[in-house]
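Q: Dipeptide epimerase, please. Structure only.
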Amino acid sequence: MARVISVETERFPIAGVFTIARGSKTEAEVITVRIRDGNNVGWGECVPYKRYGETIEGVLATIEPLRPSLEAGMGRLELQSALPPGAARNAIDCALWDLEAKTAGASAAKLLGLEPKPLETAYTLSLAEPEAMASQARANAARPLLKVKLGGNNDAARIRAVREAAPNSRLILDANEGWTNDNVQENIAAAAALGVTLIEQPLPAGHDDKLRHIPRPIPICADESVHAAEDIDALVGLYDAVNIKLDKAGGLTEAIKLRDRARERGLGIMVGCMVGTSLGMAPAVLLAQGADYVDLDGPLLLARDREPGLVYQGSQVSPPDQALWG
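A: Structure for Dipeptide epimerase:
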């Protein structure tokens, strides 16, 4: 019996407004792929990301021509050469992992040789004026790890406001490529003075070489500058860690290769996410076992998640139940 492929677009409202240096959004738009093979159905989710030239319509158009190959039995390894890294490949790859686990009668964790444990995730504070960011930080000051969205003017004041409002939390700063050659050293110095733990993608991708020539008292993590394993070698000496996201890598299969390559080259590992549902986070929770930094708070930012979803207790996220994925 041939497989049956279904693809749909879903929207999940965000609790309030989520703002980064590139703009604001009030809902998470995701694409869900289901692959049915007999009695087993595997599914996966992706978030098309405008920064990488992706749209809902474009990702749907990318998936459609693969339908005959998927129905004929295309596997994860064939998929790697059929599509480039990106959201479309991610949804299909994760659906194939889920299908593989269900067909084998074993969890995806078992297929990966893992005994997964709960993880401590960062919680993201949306970009705003310093006073508003301090209010967000105050409301989440009990969380051990906060991710602070930056990338505007006066970021030093934002960092200071968050630090004063959440004095006991570790802070990750995410500039989303929003700093410049003129202010990057000033902002890094301010972050160092305030005990920041990590700075993520301070400069635009392609301008990374500037980091080779300035003091880095705080570890710097690449995000927009790294997508797949082949990107790693060019980042050695510029960055101290890499942020691996399934939507950038094009699925769990490539993300594992990327993680392993980064470790071989001595880089720290962050596993991050776009703003999506528990279905998008579930495979990333397995990828993040043993990571140095975990940022899988997407469902915590939503007004409504999938049911069943991942279980969060404060900032701890548990491994996915097979009723959700894997």
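A: Brief note, in case it's useful. The domain at 4-105 is CATH 3.30.390.10 (Enolase-like; domain 1).
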